[in-house]
Design a protein that fits this description.
5-stranded antiparallel β-sheet, alpha+beta, 13 strands
Length: 352
């Protein structure tokens, strides 16, 4: 249905908008400006029933967005992490990931589709031509902008189309909850877990390569040995989490070469035990220079002096490697005399 088929009295009043001045080509302006074509009224401008149908469609899209957001939250809470489904033709997928992606996509799409349908069918579609002007706005221009904004707000019918307004506010209010729910995927707060390791008084030092407890005579002067706590096995479910905190470097120095008094007191016959985890970003340290007693992190070249409390002598690491106090038990095996006195690895926000 076009505006020509509607009686003139049913047509909406024309807005006082210029459609651009028509110019004729001349020597200074060889290209003429034909102006804008005559404005064609939409069916929603003419028939209130059509306008109400469009209003209900927009409200439906916003309502579907709200329901999809609720479904997103329900899927996050209900679907197990390890459940998988088969989706043709993609294959097997995580059921939770598929549900979260689908529901969030529907929620965002419906908000966008509702806004576009609202703009194309119910908001004013009169084209307005305006001349270029200087960047600095004059008082008259500012007054015109304010007037245009008020006119646009009026033409949007936001105040009159309460169904659209209420459902839009509902959709926009609910969809951010999807992001809030995703914060739960970060897992529980670490609490004090990062401050403690498996090392405790009486825990034997076990060679990572042979899986056998270490005796002092097993560690030669100038050698580097990696150790773990007794009882920690690679088949354990929490092995990776625990070894990331408890991994040790065992080095035997001549007692006279140890410069730091506390390091000497916490050693046994020149055997010192330091955390293997770099204090920069947590890389495992594995390079040892026998003559200088320096260890190097291969990730960013942080260098620590194991003869001087493992202090940082080069690189981006912020503090020394934590030392583990060691001794021997009644059977002659190396054992820890407690846990590290400070958290291992990089600094973190709640370290204190």
């Amino acid at each position: 249905m076009s505006s020509q088929d509607i009686p003139e009295e049913n047509l909406p009043a024309e807005q006082d908008h210029a459609h651009g001045a028509v110019t004729v080509a001349d020597e200074e302006n060889p290209f003429s400006d034909p102006g804008l074509p005559p404005h064609e009224h939409r069916i929603q401008d003419i028939d209130e029933r059509a306008a109400r149908r469009s209003e209900r469609m927009v409200a439906l899209l916003f309502t579907v967005s709200m329901l999809a957001t609720v479904a997103f939250i329900a899927a996050y809470l209900v679907i197990p992490n390890d459940k998988s489904i088969f989706v043709f033709p993609i294959g097997h997928l995580s059921a939770m990931n598929f549900a979260l992606g689908l529901t969030l996509g529907v929620a965002l799409f419906c908000i966008g589709a509702g806004a576009v349908h609202w703009a194309r069918t119910l908001m004013s579609d009169v084209e307005v031509a305006d001349d270029r002007h200087a960047i600095a706005a004059s008082p008259e221009v500012r007054a015109k902008v304010h007037a245009d904004f008020r006119q646009g707000a009026k033409e949007s019918a936001l105040g009159r189309r309460k169904l659209i307004r209420n459902t839009m506010f509902g959709a926009l209010a609910l969809v951010p909850l999807s992001g809030v729910m995703l914060l739960g995927g970060l897992g529980p707060a670490p609490g004090t877990k990062l401050r403690h390791t498996m090392w405790a008084k009486g825990k034997r030092l076990v060679n990572m390569n042979t899986n056998q407890p270490l005796r002092p005579e097993d560690v030669a002067v100038g050698s580097l040995t990696f150790a773990k706590p007794d009882g920690l096995e690679e088949t354990d479910e929490e092995f990776q989490n625990e070894i990331a905190k408890a991994a040790l470097m065992i080095v035997r120095l001549q007692p006279g070469n140890i410069k730091d008094k506390r390091e000497l007191d916490w050693s046994h016959e020149g055997i010192v035990a330091f955390s293997k985890i770099c204090t920069h970003v947590g890389c495992p340290i594995s390079l040892y220079e026998q003559q200088t007693h320096h260890v190097l992190c291969p990730c960013h070249q942080s260098t620590f002096d194991l003869s001087d409390g493992a202090r940082v002598i080069f690189g981006p690491a912020g503090h020394a490697l934590p030392q583990l106090r060691i001794g021997v038990d009644s059977e002659g095996y190396l054992q820890a005399l407690g846990d590290f006195e400070e958290p291992v690895g990089p600094a973190f926000w709640e370290r204190g």
